[in-house]
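Shift notes (night). Ran TMM70 protein while the centrifuge was going.
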Amino acid sequence: QVTSFQGVAVRSLSTSSPHDHPEHGRLVYKGNLAKTVLGVKFFSYSTSVFNLFMMPYIMLKSGIGVESLLVQAAFYGLIGVFTFVTPVTLHILTKGYVIRLYYKDEVDTYTAITYNAVLAEKATVFHQKDVKIPDITKMFTTFYAKTKSMLVNPTLFPNPQDYNHLMGYDKSSIFKFEELEE
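Came back to this:
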């Protein structure tokens, strides 16, 4: 590979693809909503932190301490929903969204990169044999890797064979006679 850098030819001695990761393997999937998921979670967390810091000031200036118990409960409940329930719900809904998926041919393992609760990337390593497809389609689950639900968009796999291998669709379906009787 030869590229031009201000008129000087520069030769790259790297033999690996820019989509390879030395530890995880070959990049087979990249989620298109990764930045959106990160942005929404960051916005939700930042507004929750802002609410926590502003709460004493609001209570001091609004005089809510002298109102009835019912008004206090409604006020604290509303603030609690926006401060705690929204970020927790967002995390639960998006924790399985795969932002990148790598595959190592030699050992037949996948590494799914997701966001954890503190917005850091988390790697989950699993074998293809650990992939289970849910019997009933679920809204935020494409497959289970061991027991963890994962969400991918099948149309974003550049190579459809990678998706077929991940889901086990490339295996021959040989039915046993006993299974047919059941």
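The radius of gyration is 24 Å. The chain has a mean pLDDT of 82.
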